[in-house]
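A brief tutorial aside. Many learners find it easier to grasp structure tokens once they have seen a single protein encoded end to end. The record that follows does exactly this for Beta-lactamase/transpeptidase-like protein. Read the sequence first, then the structure, and try to relate runs of similar tokens to stretches of the chain.
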Amino acid sequence: MQLVERNLVSLDDATVIEKLLPELAAKKVLTGYEEQEDGSKEWKFEDSKGEITPRMLLNHTNGTGHTYSDPLTNEYLKEGWEVRNEVADPYQTLLDSPLRWQPGTHTFYGQGIDWIAVLIERLTKLSLVNYLQENIFDPLNMKSTGYEETHGGDITSREESDGRFWGRSLKQEDGSYVTIDPSPLAKPARAKPFPEGEYHTHPLGTGLASTATDLTRFLTILLNEGKDPVSGKTIISPESTQEMWEAQLPAALRNDSRLITSALPGVMVPVDLPAPTLDPEGSFGLACGVQGADRALGDGRKGRSKGSVYWFGAANTEYWVDPEKGIVVLAEGNYFPWNDEAWTAFVAEVEGRIYEGL
């Protein structure tokens, strides 16, 4: 939204995708496959019939899938026992992934946010980490936020040296937890990163690490019409903040696919956003969910208010910003699988108690 305010891009301009993301504009739609006698797959495609705009990348109507949540995209990118994905190699995964639906016809939480990362770098001619540092992290004094080493940053080693890095865990069937990524300090051998080279190292869908303090300060600007209440600095305009919060999907698209499926059962549990106890009348906003009616929790208590914006992190992180009540809520579990039953029960209980006290 900062770049929109600076007139560097329009949310509804498809030509910017054709010009700056030609790899995305040229993609075909993967529709399925036919199993061959030798066990191989003959993949079936059709030409894309619609344009993609920056808005569609943000509201998840761009037609992309995701290796974590779309089984067919996951299957297509397999190479023997090796699976390419958005965590191991985000940019190459973007290049290799087909579209999964005709743009503008289907909502799916896909790769749009990572394409936005590439677009920001190409528009500004800066690495994403430098752009974020100069325009968000430094103005908000977010000193403990940055990219992990696997995505070209140094936040993991900096925080670990102070004994402050909390590695992610995986929950086992017996309820125990094992650490799955103890501070990967080595940067993978990749092509020279942008802008010195052409490789886009920094995604937006993964790779960033932060603290509850930093992240809450960032979320608070959404509650304060784009302004940091601590320093008084404006990060985005009130108009941009309002547009982010507006329901972006027409009625026909709101509930056709706000089911977030799973291609990796040990990592993600599917969640149906239109479920009665979640957001049956809601929509995607710009890179967030927008609560369509006051949330009715499973035990009958009231939850977040209509108009709240919310989203999740894959390692059981969840936030919501409730402008009616004037609150920001952030819950961090930092373990997989996402949407684990114990985690969702915990968040619902926290939510119920908060609103009982308001």
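Self-check: The chain is about 30% helix and 15% strand. If you spotted this yourself, you are ready for the next section.
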